Amino acid sequence: MTILQAEHITKSYGGRTIIEDINIELHKGELVSLLGVSGAGKTTLFHVLSGLTAPEEGRVVLSGEDITAKPGRISYMMQKDLLLPHKKIIDNVSLPLVLGGEKKTEARRKAEPLFAQFGLEGTQYQYPGQLSGGMRQRAALLRTYLSSDGVALLDEPFSALDTITKSSIHQWYLDVMERIDLSTLFITHDIDEAILLSDRIYILSGQPGRITEEIVIEEKKPRPADFNLTEGFFRYKREIIGKLALGGPQEGQA
């Protein structure tokens, strides 16, 4: 079942077209990656999908409803965790509920049971500065979930983590997605990360940015721990590198 659609999205800033005629969809329970070089317009697309900005053309549809330029329906997590250092973790993660009009005690009550599912049990009354990078990202993801309508947009959320922590949090996030029935659209520059996590990968390239390819990762989840060492993995990687190279210089590029 399709839960999120971007239909013919075009967005410009200062007279320059950043993305043009973008069509993508996210099915329920999927993790779909958006992969491309810097400047192709991935974050601009997320701003449109989340309702932070309106497109010149096209629309965004969530579960059959047109939500174009309507913020607050889809949660959006940027690269930095943006946890407030002076607030306890439970108040950081429940902040979207408070901003939505709920009282602090009720927001805490709703957030509390999810701490165990997100591997954060015992951190509720600590401050962000007391947590590791991986735990801070888990807290940020819990906050994102509490502000979501079943869909999360993640903009390179794991890019600042070391390799070992990133590998661990990848599997954790896939497990959490399945448990809480979450669908995810994921920006990354990391080809390996996209292959390991995704059900499908959209390649965005050119200036203005356009979807030039959709790649389906056929291996079922959960994938073997050594999937990144298999010939199948390297076949996907070679294909993606080739598609990115074919994106080539377009309008506005030297």
TrEMBL record:
One of its GO terms (molecular function) is ATP hydrolysis activity. SMART domains: AAA. Coiled coil: none annotated. This is ABC transporter ATP-binding protein. SUPFAM superfamilies: P-loop containing nucleoside triphosphate hydrolases. Gene3D superfamilies: P-loop containing nucleotide triphosphate hydrolases. It comes from Candidatus Anaerobutyricum stercoripullorum. The keyword Nucleotide-binding applies. Keywords: ATP-binding, Nucleotide-binding, Transport. Residues 4-233 form the ABC transporter domain.
